[in-house]
# Entry
Amino acid sequence: MPVGKRIYLKRQMPDPKVVAGFKKIPASNTADCMERNCAMNPRIKLMSNPDEEMVGPAFTVHTRAGDNLAIYAALKYCQPGDVIVIDDEGDNTRSLIGEVMMSYLRDQKKIAGIVIGGPIRDIDNLRNWKLPIYATSTTPGGPYKEGPGEINVPVACGNVSVNPGDVILGDADGVICIPRKDAPEILPKAQAFHEQDEAKAIAFSKGEVDLSWVDKSLADKGLADKGFDIIDDVYRP
# Structure
């Protein structure tokens, strides 16, 4: 079984109820419950116009830089509700996918979304789609179709490790990866955090907030009194 030419047909999948539970939680709230250590690089941006968050199990693709042969194989093997996560080894010179392949994924395979560590093309049409599409950029330059590539192996996308079956959550802020094994534990924490965050936003907007913890935190970190110089004047260069 040569490395670089493997297609795994099976994945360890997350509980569908757990996946669905993340649907209404902002990616930022979930990320804060994971020590803020799960977000893909902000180079990966939302390129389309979905009505709702993207969430689903990761269907991973590792392709050679600037080559999309393995992505064509993914058209055959991905399943409805999957989020396709593509690692193209950091290449940013060739688009890996455009409207033709995206149409098949949206209309025939009914995936939940796609996350690409590289460019796409046909943005004039794709920017209006409801299918969540995340990519680094756009370019008219097309890909090669030579291979090699792998499907449903661990990949790195946006500087984050993604395993097949991990829960991928994306909204307008960007994309995070929730490890499959940790997802059942993270979900109730994220739900509670989201409720608290909404209440906090209302309190801040009304000015009903206690910031006394800031002084304590500054003191604990050695920044109070001797740490900051408090100058009752303007900055003078």
